[in-house]
Structure formats: structure tokens, C-alpha cells
Amino acid sequence: MEIIELEATLNSLTSELVKTVEIIQTIKSENLSVSSKESASQATLAYILDKAAELGFKIKNVTQGVGYIQYGEGAESDDYIGIFGNVGTNVETVNHVTNSLPTFTDNTSAMITNLFALYALKKLKITFDVPVRIVVTMDQDGEFEHIKDYLRLEVVPLFGWTPTSTWSVTYPTYQHAKIRIQSKNSKESTNYLDTETIREILELNMRNHKNLEKNMPIYGINITKIYEAKDHMNVEFSYPETINSSDLKSFVEINMLGNQVDTFHPMPQHVVASMHSHYIEPLTKSYAQVTGERIEPRKSDVLTYASLIQNTVSFGPRLIQCSGHSDTKDTRELLRRNMEIYTRSLLMLSGIVEST
Predict the structure, then answer these.
(1) Handedness of CA 71, 72, 76, 81 (dihedral sign)
(2) Buried b (16+ CB within 10 A) or exposed e, 344-354
(3) Any idea which of 151-155, 224-228, 304-308, 340-344 has the lowest mean pLDDT?
(4) pLDDT at 39
(5) pLDDT tens-digit profile of 226-280?
(6) Distance (Å, rounded) from C-alpha 263 to C-alpha 266?
(7) Collapsing DSSP states into helix, strand and coil, what is residue 349?
(8) Which domains are delineated in the chain?
(9) Which pTM was predicted?
(10) CA 260 to chain CA centroid, nearest Å
(11) pLDDT reported for residue 257
(12) Helical H runs in the chain?
């Protein structure tokens, strides 16, 4: 594909991208004025999914608080490239003097920009060996309820990203593990505890987990998935790399009442294990191609969707701007630039991603 063709396609979509972002900000503002943040978030999620359907994408409401947009179909595996973000409303400022729209501190603008980046590739008839999925939740900043619902019901991606703050790729220092829980007294049940009870016990006790050397609480242990088998339950969770896995295993065993942890398996993030991953390089390279500046990937211990979801990094800013209100021309140029970075990233990934 010629670069000139890509540039022309992106130029043709820019006006619609800007208009869509403006409409969503208006939807949020109007719903906030008459109702609650939840209503604004619900209206935003519904509009984004409807807009994606209008553009010809497959959409699915996974739960009331999370849905996804998909381009392409998988072959024999469940692999996909995932882009994850929240539209839970956290309103920052409302400028009543200029009547400008409030600034929202969520991923809305970034997720719409990713949607139009994917739409550009759809128009150019670029295909992938695995589907590309944009997952949108109603979570507010610092909340993970709806993304955890998604992870309970869907598999993790082959590779993915979530917009956070900057264009440098950041990969999490969080580790992932899976434990198998089975009753000490019976091989046919887990002491009659259902998944939600197991979740409550684990989350309550994990919040009280302490660093054994400093006797200080360690935060950031998050259960991402629980699923039942015939005679046991499997639990997947993420935790900071500062926690010793053997200490965590012992802690979980002690606090599982009459149940026991039969196995404790680390789940390495094999595709984002280092900045040299061949999945990460296309993201870094695409930013350099568009801006002329290369920013090397780095580690981050900030708790984001990338900390919870295996094989996922943080990539790209969440906001059009960090604060205040920019000129309409500046906003248009910034959205156009960001759309090109995401489009080039997906385009390069289309050539290397293969189904497992």
C-alpha cells in the first residue's frame, strides 16, 4: 500500500473524527447536567458502539458496563489484538464563561481515535490474521469493575494496548499468576463456595497482604478471572513484582479457609517481556515515523488496564490535551496526528501478528 493512499484516507476521515469527539463530549455534558456520571457513561458507551456499527464493525455488549468493537474474524483460535479504554465520566472543569465543553479525564477521545484508525484500515481493505478488538468500559479512573467483568467472560488478547498518558510505550511491572483451588476435604467441591464467595475471600485477604520484611500493606493485587471446573476452581490475578510469589502462594493457602491451593503457576507476559519485543517495536516506530522523534519503551508500576491484562502495554495519551481548551485547528491537527500514529501501529502489526 502506498503511503500517499494512507495519507489521503486519513485526511478524508479527520472531519468525521473531530465531529464524533465533539458529539461525545456534548453527550457527556448534557447527561451530566440532568442526571449522574453513570448516565453520562452509559450514554457515551451506547453512542460509541452505535457509531462503530454505523461504520460497519461488529459490536457486542458483553455486560451493561462493557462492550467491544471488532474488525475481522478469528480462524481456529481465540487470539485477537485488543485496545482497551474507559469512558467512565470524571469531569474536570466546566468553563461557563466561554461555553466551551468540559474536559473529561477518561479515554474517550483516545478510544474514538483508535476506532477511526481501525476504520481507515478497513476502508483500505487491510486484513489481519487475527481480529482487532476495541474494548470500551464504563469504568471511572482508578476503578476496574467493568474490565474485570470482561476478563471473566473473555480471553486475554494476543497483544494489546491501553491509552494512558504519553506516547512512550510503557509495560507493566505487574506479574500474573493462576492458582487452582480445591477442597481439602473433598475432590468434588470447593467446600460449597461459589465463585463470588471465593472472590470475596481472596480480595478481602489480599487487600490485607503485607510485605513480610517491612510489615506494610502491599496494594495492587487484583483478581482478574475465576472459572469453575468439575472438581476445582482456577483463579487468575495480577500482582506487583515487589511481592514474592512463594510468599503470596503461602498467604493464599492460609487464608482459603478449608480449601487449599493445589498449584501456583506464574503466567509470564511473553509478548511484552522487554522493550525488544517484536510486538512493541511497531508502536515505537510508528510514533517516530509521524513525529520524527523516537521514545524508547520503559517500565511503569502505575496500576492501569495494562497491569491487569496479560500481553498488554500502555500506549498513547488519554486526552486530546492535558488541561484547558485548545484552538479548534490545534485539536483537529492533534486528532489527525494521533489517528495516524495508531493507524501505522496497526498496519505494522498486521504484518507480524499470527494466530497461535
Answers:
(1) negative
(2) bbbbbbbeebe
(3) 224-228
(4) 85
(5) 887 777 788 888 887 777 777 777 777 776 656 666 777 888 766 666 655 788 8
(6) 10
(7) helix
(8) 3-169+275-349 (3.40.630.10), 174-266 (3.30.70.260)
(9) 0.82
(10) 32
(11) 53
(12) 3-34, 37-54, 108-123, 145-153, 195-207, 245-254, 281-291, 305-308, 328-349
- Grid cell for residue 134: 476495541
pLDDT in tens, 58-92: 999 999 999 999 999 866 678 899 999 998 766 55
Q: Give the contacts of 189 (CB within 8 A, at least 6 positions apart).
A: 183, 231
Amino acid of residue 189 = S
d(CA 14, CA 194): 49
Q: Are 170 and 280 in contact (CB under 8 A)?
A: no
- Name the pLDDT band for 138 (thresholds 50, 70, 90): very high
Joined grid coordinates for residue 208: 490485607
163 burial via Cβ count (<10 Å: 0-12, 13-18, 19+): buried
CA separation for the pair 135, 308 (Å, rounded): 14
DSSP for residue 272: G
